[in-house]
């Protein structure tokens, strides 16, 4: 671990008491919102209202604290995010509306992220520097290099690039490209490299395929800071993200953060999307907050009810919205549109 | 006159000075080498990257999203194959995001045969490139076209794959680039790095001017009445030479169209010429199976079958796994001048 990483001086020995109680409640609210949203998406997938489902239930304990700490905005002075398809908690914490994810699930023309074209949880928000999420595995670690260079070449900014993905994807070359480019002596990059380790690549246990003790150990090779944390604990996650971001914003160098989390509904709808008995970050969070009287049972119930209503209302509205017309396929092939001679017949 | 490498270098200099190009990078692109074909010598924004094509293309895409208008180089097109899914992302970012993410970026890479490059320095990528929809593909055959197409590629809000015919990079032009000194040696003294120690060398750039060859616009290199040759890249000057020689010998009056842009291609130029001649051959050095020229032939047959006097033809590379080093093997694999002559002779002789 680099000596320039500043471990935050605790005001209390209890990390839960070091964070503002209102912030903890806001985190809890968005975590619940994310969970209920994912469960609604799963239900839609199983009910034929949409197709493939893939998402991040079980990762809220890490993703929501991350989303709350993003320097949000458009352009090189703000943080860039290269996310993957389990990142709904990050987007919701940044202010994304549940209705828009439901629109993408239902493939409506009103889907603001892809116009009904992409799988659910494939965000693309230029106003918040959320770069287009792709179904390809790990390519986000290659594109993150680019925004990292843009920020490294912009004098005076403290903005950083955030890239996240799963444990299985770290076997791809893109992960190692990102490590190499972020640590070039000629131009170190301000990139927060995140690996959310849920222990599986679809059905394949990581323990069978990865000999690394921790994925974060790759950092040692580059003498860059790296840390493995319990991503099921939102407070531990919050502080770890804060520490990593503070280091990157100041030192303009990369940091590798591995968060171990659960995967509560398996890989995707292709593996059934049924509840799996692994530790639940929301349940853990609620127990910890109740134990410290930071929230009470009634408040918790209200959070679940209000978010359920929010999602129900959004779902009812999306059901009224149109699907894209077939002719919409020609929109966005080229930025300026297509001229009359472009072949459009699809054959003879 | 400038050669194509110098022309591209001058275009990149114009781009970094005037068109917002903030990053020019790739393997050996920065000092001291300035690119294995010297196209990035002396540029302020040029730097060396790790030997990692996926990182190069991914970095360019991220920079494009950030509005930095990057120009990245893949050292030889033979090494671009491991980036295909990233090239697809370049091509589909705008579409996949419902029109929200423009990707102004240029990937430049030397393509094709002609330098005795054996299996991995002779590939063509033209046909595969045309399958990456959302990406524009250009391939100049003269220094002036290279200059004008590079400036257009830099200005474009779409990803542009700029294919540099490696056999032509050292070929001198016959047209002056706007701002280029007329004295060839003067240009060389100004912008070519010296051999040996160049640590203190700085280029003296001529006062270059904006000049665009519009993407999507073919060039009629030679007008003719009897048959149409549609080509691009390395084979364009060969086809033009053959056409001139046929005319001098009284063997036929050939029209030569240099596509310059493969995607989006200039369909109006193609149809107008075929309507005039009734005979057409598409000539390129990609392999025969699923060749870009085949697509154009299919469309010609579909849309103007009754305007053809004879069957349309394709002259292409042989469908073998590689290009052998021994000259006889290379010449047997990709079209040479004699193959162009024979193919055109047959096209002209075909009874209508």
Which tags fit this structure?
heterodimer, A: 348 residues, alpha/beta, Rossmann fold, 5-stranded parallel beta sheet, two-stranded antiparallel sheet, 7 strands, 9% strand, B: 352 residues, 7-stranded mixed beta sheet, globular
Please tell me about this protein's structure.
- The complex is a heterodimer of chains A (348) and B (352).
- Helix content of chain A is 40%, strand content 9%.
- Chain A has 348 residues and is an alpha/beta fold.
- Chain A has one domain: Thiamin diphosphate (ThDP)-binding fold, Pyr/PP domains (Rossmann fold, 3-Layer(aba) Sandwich).
- In chain A, the strands form two sheets. Chain A has a five-stranded parallel β-sheet, with helices on both faces.
- In chain A, β2 (161-166), α7 and β3 form a beta-alpha-beta unit.
- Chain A is globular and about 70 Å long.
- The N and C termini of chain A lie far apart (63 Å).
- The relative contact order of chain A is 0.17.
- Chain B is an alpha/beta fold.
- Chain B folds into two domains: 4-191, Thiamin diphosphate (ThDP)-binding fold, Pyr/PP domains (Rossmann fold), CATH 3.40.50; 219-349, Rossmann fold (3-Layer(aba) Sandwich), CATH 3.40.50.
- In chain B, β8 (227-231), α7 and β9 (254-258) form a beta-alpha-beta unit.
- Chain B starts with a helix and ends with a helix.
- At the A-B interface, α6 and α7 of A face α2, α3 and α9 of B.
